[in-house]
Every structure is written in C-alpha cells, then in structure tokens.
UniProtKB/TrEMBL annotation:
Residues 116-137 have a biased composition (Low complexity). Residues 113-137 are annotated as: Disordered. SUPFAM superfamilies: Winged helix' DNA-binding domain (SSF46785). This is HTH hxlR-type domain-containing protein. It comes from Streptomyces filamentosus NRRL 15998.
Length: 137
C-alpha cells in the first residue's frame, strides 16, 4: 500500500487536514456505508446512490492511499475485492459522529422553526426521520 505522507506545515489547522481526507461529495457516504459492513464494489455503489463508478473508484483509491480504507483482493476466479475500514478509518468515523448529530439536530430545528411550512410548500425538503450517519442506523 502506498500511503501519501503530507508535510505537517501544509495545513492551516486540523479541520483543514481532515477535510483534505474527507473532502468531496461522496467520501463521507462511502465511510458511512463501510462503517456498516465490509462491502464489495457493487454493494458500495448501491449503498451510495448517485455516485458513478469512476468517482467511486477514484475516492476508494484516495481513501486507501490515506490509510482510511483497506482493499482486500482474493485470488479467486472471478476475482473478488472487498473494502473495509482500517482502524484509522474507524477513528475517523468516530470523529464524524458529532458532526452527524449536529446535522440531525439542525434538520429538526429547521423543521420546528417558523416558516418551515412555507419552506416545505416552496419545495425545500425537510427530513422527517433522523439522518443516518457513521455508526448510526
């Protein structure tokens, strides 16, 4: 495994360094799906609706290079590849849990605020169920 090593001075703060790893539309959703279980590529694609094969493949490679995702290739015919979180990936998901809790609270707070009905009528969607995040069902 080739791991990208970054210079400590390359980032302004810890959030900057974390966002470098999880930045992008799909990475946190990939992490959430892998937190649930080890997945093959097709399973991940179904677990993250809307992601293209090219983007999923690219993000998995980046997460693997960063030491977040482990890629296991089995010597079978046809070849089988499974993706799982490394201990570093599990710790990243644990760090993302408070952010997921904040997001759920924000959604509920937005739904309870005055004008939420008007927002709903204008087409703005407000989730009625808790939003699942890393480690949540």
């Amino acid at each position: 495994m080739t791991r990208i090593v970054r210079r400590p001075g390359a980032f302004v703060c810890g959030i900057d360094a974390a966002m470098d790893v999880i930045g992008g539309k799909w990475k946190v959703l990939i992490l959430w799906a892998l937190n649930e279980k080890t997945c093959r590529f097709g399973e991940l694609r179904r677990a993250v609706p809307g992601v293209t094969e090219k983007v999923l493949s690219s993000h998995l490679k980046e997460l693997e290079d960063d030491g977040i995702v482990h890629r296991e290739v089995y010597a079978e015919v046809p070849p089988r590849v499974e993706y799982s979180l490394t201990p570093l990936g599990l710790s990243l998901n644990a760090a993302l849990e408070p952010l997921g809790a904040w997001g759920r609270d924000h959604i509920y707070r937005s739904a309870e605020e005055p004008g939420a009905e008007a927002a709903a009528e204008s087409g703005v969607e407000v989730a009625a169920e808790p939003v699942a995040g890393p480690g949540r069902r």
